[in-house]
Amino acid sequence: LFLIFYGLPKLLLLTLNININDWQKSIFVVIALSLLFASNLAEVFKSAYLSVDGGQREAALMVGLSEWQALSRDITTNSCCCFAKFCQYDCCIN
Fold it and tell me: Is 57:70 a contact under the CB 8 Å cutoff?
């Protein structure tokens, strides 16, 4: 929090000549907390993505979906269901 609050204005002023000292202080709090919890949330999404069986990707490719379609339609949907189960909300229809 201190690095973002004191260091970011100095860094931007010295490198890019941008003065952000007039910004509201709550913006710095939001930036600091976003950086703090981003790594934890990334690990949760990574584990949800890896929990989807590799056979589902292969099945999506076999029916003619492209890599992007397989990711967006099949794997991401199942990852979100695994994430929801992790959060104790069973939203999937099995």
Answer: yes
Quote the CA–CA distance of 41 and 19 in Å, as a whole number: 31
Tens-digit pLDDT profile for residues 76-93: 777 777 666 666 554 554
Q: Which residue has the tokens 């941008």?
A: 18
Q: Give the chain's mean pLDDT.
A: 79
What is the distance between the alpha carbons of residues 21 and 9, in angstroms, rounded to a whole number?
6
Position 1, amino acid: L
CB distance 69 to 60 below 8 Å = yes
Q: Which amino acid is at 87?
A: C
Cβ-count burial 66-93 (b if 16+ within 10 Å, e if not)? eeeebbeebbeebbebbbeeeeeeeeee
Structure tokens at 42: 């990334």
